[in-house]
Task: inverse folding
C-alpha cells in the first residue's frame, strides 16, 4: 500500500500553480520529487554514495536531464525507436542544473552524486527547463545528501515591454529578452540567456525579479522538507589535513610562486615554471623528511603536498591581483589582450575569418545551404527546423595536450549554444532564403574561446555576404573578492577563470546585450558590484567591436562568386499547383531547363518558393519563369510572347509562362492578311498587348498591331473580321 504523498504548492504568477510532491514515486532513491505545472510533470531523483572512492580528490557530480517521448504521446524518430543519448537541448538543460547545484556542496565532499531529472508528462505550453532545477533542488532538499543551501531557477522574459516569470511557450515566441536565473534565498548563482540588444540595467531588473520569484520557491522546498521531517544531513568522511606539511609547502614555495606570477609569462612558460617549483618542493620535502637517497617520498605526503601547492598558487595569484592590481600576463584589470583579425581567410568556404585575442584563436567558416539543409531540432513537446546552425570544436592541440578525439562533449555544446544565441539576434528573418551553418574550430585556447567564436562568427558572416546588420562581439569577465576588496577582470585567462569568484561572458552590439552566461561562486555578491562588472564588460566589448569594424565595416553586398545563389519569393497559394504542374511536370521542367533546385511549400497562407543554383543567370531565369506563372495578367500591359502554333484564323501565343491567348489574324497587322504564312511562324517572339478578356469564356484578347505605327488612312478600328469558332 502506497503511503500518502506529501505536497506543497505555490503560484508563479497569473494564477499558474506549481505542485511539488514527494513520497509516492522512486522511494528507494535518497531523494525523489515530482514537480507539476499544468500537464507538465518532472520527476527528479538524487542518489549519493556513502563513501568516496579511494584516493578521490574531486567532486564527482553527474546531472542528466532527459525527456521521455511518451510524455507527449510520441514515438522517437530514431531507427531503434527508443530514447538514446541526450540531445543538445537535454544537454543544455543538464548544464543549467549542474552549474547551479555544484557550488552548493561542501568543498571537501568527494562522494559520487547522481541527479536524474526526467520529463514524464509534457504540456505543450509549459517550458520544462524552467522547472528542472527546482525539481533537482527539491529532491536534494528532502534527502540527507549534505547540500548547504536550497536553490531554484526561473525563466524571466520581457514580452511587449513587460517582464513575465516562467512565461508560456506561445508567449515566449514574442519575447525580446529571455533569461534563466538560478539563486539561493540570498544569492544569485547562475544567469544564462539572450536578448535583442537589451541594456545592462534591463538585465539587472530581470535578475531582481527572478530572485523574488525564487525566494517563494525556496520557501516551498523548505516547507516540503519540514513536512517530511528531514532534520539534518548525513555525516561524511572528510579528507585528513596535515597543517605541518601545509606550513612547509608555504614556507618553501610562496615567494617563488609570487615571483613567477609577477613575471608576465606566457601560459606554457608559466606552467613550466610552476611545475619546476613543484618538483623542487618534492625534493625539499625529501630532505625535511629524511628520505634516503634513491627512495621516493611517502605517496600520501607527496599527494597532499601537491594539493597544498595547488591551493597556494590559488591564494598567491588572487592576492597579487587584489593587492597589486596586476594580472598573470602583466595586464591591468581592464586591459584586453592584443587583437588580430582577418576576413576571407580561406579561399573555398563561402565565408571565413580568423580571430586571435592573445593566446586564444578561432578559425570560423560560414556555409550557405538550401532549405533542404535545415536542422531538425526535436524535443518531446515540439519538432522545429532551424535555418541557423553553429558548431563549436575544441581539439586537444588547442591547449597543447594529447587526448582522444571524441564526439562533442557538454562543454562544446554549451559554448556553441552561447555563441549561436548571441549571433542569432542579428541574423535576417525568415525572408532570408539560405540555411547558414557556422563552424568554429578553436586553434589556440587560453581564456574564453566561446567569446572568440562570437567575434569570429560575426566577421565570417559579413565576409560571406549574409545581410548581418551589426557586429556582435563578446568578452569574458572575472571577479576576485576577499575581505571587502574586489577586482573585476576584463578578458580573463584560463587560470583566472579557475581562481575567480565569478565567470561571466557578455556578448552584444554597440547598442546592447545579445547574450549572457554567468556563474557566481561567491556568497553575498551585491548588485552594485554586478553593475560595475557589466559596465566594465561594456567597455571591453566596445574595444573589441571597434577593431572588428576596422577589419570589415559592413557585410559584403553579395555572396562570393563561388557561393550558391538563392532567391526566395512568395506567391498566392492558388498558384502553387500551377508552379508544380500535374505530377510535378512543370517544376521538373523548370529545374531541368534552368539547372536550379526549386523548393515550394505553403506557409502562412501563401506559397514560399526557394530557388537555389550555382549561377545567377540560371536563378534569374527560374525566378522570371515562376513570376510569370504566378502573375496576374493586366489589361493594357505589354508582353513578350512566343508563338506556339499557327491556325488559319490567327496564332496562339504564350505571353506569360503557362498563359496563352489567341492573336487573331486581324490583330497581327494594320494590313488585311489572308494568311500568316511568311508573317509568323512557331517559335517567333513578338510583342503583344493584352487588350481585354472575353466576358463569357475568360479568354485573353491580344493585339500586335496596336503596338505598330498606324498607317495613314487606316480605319480607326481596322478591318477586323468576325471571329471564327475556335
Result:
Amino acid at each position: 500500500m502506497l503511503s500518502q504523498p506529501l505536497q506543497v504548492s505555490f503560484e508563479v504568477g497569473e494564477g499558474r500553480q506549481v505542485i511539488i510532491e514527494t513520497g509516492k514515486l522512486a522511494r528507494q532513491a535518497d531523494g525523489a520529487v515530482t514537480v507539476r505545472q499544468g500537464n507538465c510533470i518532472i520527476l527528479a531523483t538524487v542518489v549519493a554514495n556513502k563513501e568516496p572512492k579511494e584516493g578521490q580528490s574531486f567532486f564527482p557530480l553527474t546531472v542528466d536531464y532527459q525527456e521521455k517521448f511518451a510524455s507527449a504521446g510520441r514515438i522517437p524518430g530514431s531507427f531503434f525507436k527508443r530514447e538514446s543519448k541526450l540531445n543538445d537541448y537535454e544537454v543544455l538543460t543538464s548544464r543549467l542544473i549542474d552549474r547551479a547545484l555544484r557550488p552548493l556542496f561542501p568543498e571537501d565532499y568527494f562522494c559520487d552524486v547522481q541527479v536524474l531529472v526526467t520529463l514524464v508528462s509534457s504540456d505543450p505550453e509549459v517550458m520544462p527547463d524552467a522547472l528542472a532545477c527546482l525539481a533537482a533542488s527539491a529532491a536534494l532538499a528532502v534527502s540527507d545528501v549534505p547540500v548547504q543551501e536550497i536553490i531554484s531557477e526561473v525563466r524571466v522574459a520581457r514580452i511587449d515591454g513587460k517582464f513575465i516569470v516562467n512565461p508560456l511557450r506561445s508567449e515566449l515566441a514574442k519575447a525580446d529578452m529571455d533569461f534563466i536565473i538560478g539563486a539561493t534565498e540570498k544569492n544569485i548563482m547562475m544567469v544564462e540567456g539572450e536578448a535583442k540588444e537589451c541594456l545592462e540595467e534591463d538585465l539587472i531588473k530581470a535578475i531582481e525579479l527572478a530572485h523574488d520569484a525564487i525566494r517563494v520557491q525556496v520557501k516551498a522546498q523548505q516547507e516540503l522538507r519540514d513536512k517530511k521531517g528531514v532534520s539534518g544531513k548525513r555525516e561524511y568522511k572528510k579528507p585528513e589535513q596535515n597543517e605541518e606539511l601545509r606550513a612547509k609547502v608555504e614556507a618553501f614555495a610562496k615567494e617563488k610562486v609570487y615571483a613567477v606570477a609577477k613575471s608576465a609569462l606566457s601560459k606554457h612558460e608559466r606552467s613550466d615554471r610552476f611545475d619546476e617549483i613543484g618538483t623542487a618542493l618534492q625534493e625539499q620535502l625529501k630532505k625535511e623528511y629524511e628520505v634516503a637517497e634513491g627512495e621516493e617520498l611517502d605517496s600520501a605526503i607527496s599527494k597532499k603536498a601537491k594539493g597544498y601547492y595547488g591551493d597556494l598558487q590559488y591564494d598567491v595569484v588572487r592576492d597579487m591581483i587584489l593587492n597589486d592590481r596586476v594580472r598573470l600576463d602583466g595586464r591591468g584589470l581592464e586591459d584586453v589582450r592584443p587583437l588580430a583579425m582577418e576576413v576571407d581567410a580561406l579561399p573555398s568556404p563561402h565565408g571565413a575569418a580568423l580571430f586571435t585575442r592573445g593566446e586564444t584563436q578561432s578559425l570560423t567558416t560560414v556555409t550557405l545551404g538550401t532549405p533542404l539543409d535545415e536542422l531538425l531540432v526535436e524535443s518531446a513537446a515540439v519538432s522545429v527546423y532551424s535555418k541557423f546552425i553553429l558548431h563549436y570544436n575544441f581539439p586537444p592541440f588547442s591547449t597543447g595536450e594529447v587526448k582522444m578525439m571524441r564526439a562533442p562533449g557538454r562543454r562544446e555544446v554549451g559554448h556553441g549554444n552561447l555563441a549561436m544565441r548571441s549571433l542569432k539576434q542579428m541574423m535576417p528573418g525568415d525572408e532570408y532564403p539560405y540555411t547558414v551553418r557556422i563552424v568554429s574550430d578553436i586553434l589556440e585556447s587560453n581564456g574564453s574561446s566561446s567569446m572568440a567564436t562570437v567575434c569570429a562568427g560575426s566577421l565570417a558572416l559579413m565576409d560571406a555576404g549574409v545581410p548581418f546588420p551589426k557586429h556582435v562581439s563578446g568578452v569574458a569577465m572575472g571577479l576576485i573578492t576577499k575581505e571587502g576588496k574586489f577586482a573585476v577582470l576584463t578578458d580573463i585567462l584560463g587560470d583566472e577563470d579557475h581562481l575567480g569568484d565569478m565567470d561571466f561572458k557578455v556578448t552584444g552590439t554597440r547598442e546592447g546585450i545579445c547574450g549572457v552566461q554567468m556563474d557566481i561562486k561567491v556568497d553575498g555578491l551585491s548588485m552594485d558590484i554586478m553593475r560595475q562588472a557589466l559596465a566594465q564588460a561594456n567597455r571591453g566589448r566596445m574595444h573589441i567591436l571597434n577593431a572588428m569594424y576596422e577589419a570589415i565595416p559592413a557585410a559584403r553586398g553579395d555572396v562570393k562568386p563561388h557561393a550558391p545563389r538563392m532567391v526566395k519569393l512568395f506567391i498566392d497559394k492558388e498558384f502553387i499547383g500551377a508552379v508544380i504542374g500535374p505530377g510535378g511536370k512543370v517544376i521538373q521542367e523548370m529545374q531541368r531547363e534552368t539547372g536550379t533546385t526549386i523548393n515550394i511549400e505553403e506557409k502562412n497562407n501563401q506559397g514560399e518558393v526557394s530557388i537555389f543554383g550555382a549561377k545567377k543567370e540560371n536563378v534569374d531565369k527560374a525566378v522570371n519563369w515562376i513570376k510569370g506563372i504566378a502573375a496576374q495578367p493586366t489589361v493594357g500591359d505589354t508582353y513578350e510572347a512566343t508563338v506556339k502554333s499557327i491556325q488559319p484564323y490567327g496564332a496562339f501565343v504564350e505571353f506569360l509562362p503557362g498563359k496563352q491567348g489567341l492573336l487573331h489574324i486581324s490583330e497581327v497587322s494594320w494590313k488585311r492578311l489572308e494568311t500568316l504564312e511568311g508573317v509568323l511562324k512557331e517559335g517567333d517572339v513578338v510583342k503583344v498587348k493584352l487588350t481585354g478578356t472575353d466576358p463569357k469564356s475568360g479568354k485573353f484578347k491580344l493585339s500586335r498591331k496596336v503596338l505598330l505605327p498606324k498607317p495613314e488612312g487606316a480605319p480607326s478600328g481596322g478591318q477586323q473580321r468576325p471571329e471564327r469558332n475556335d
User: Anything to note?
Assistant: The chain is about 30% helix and 30% strand. The longest helix spans residues 200-228. Residues 243-324 form a domain with the Arc Repressor Mutant, subunit A fold (CATH 1.10.10.400). The CA atoms of residues 63 and 466 lie 38 Å apart.
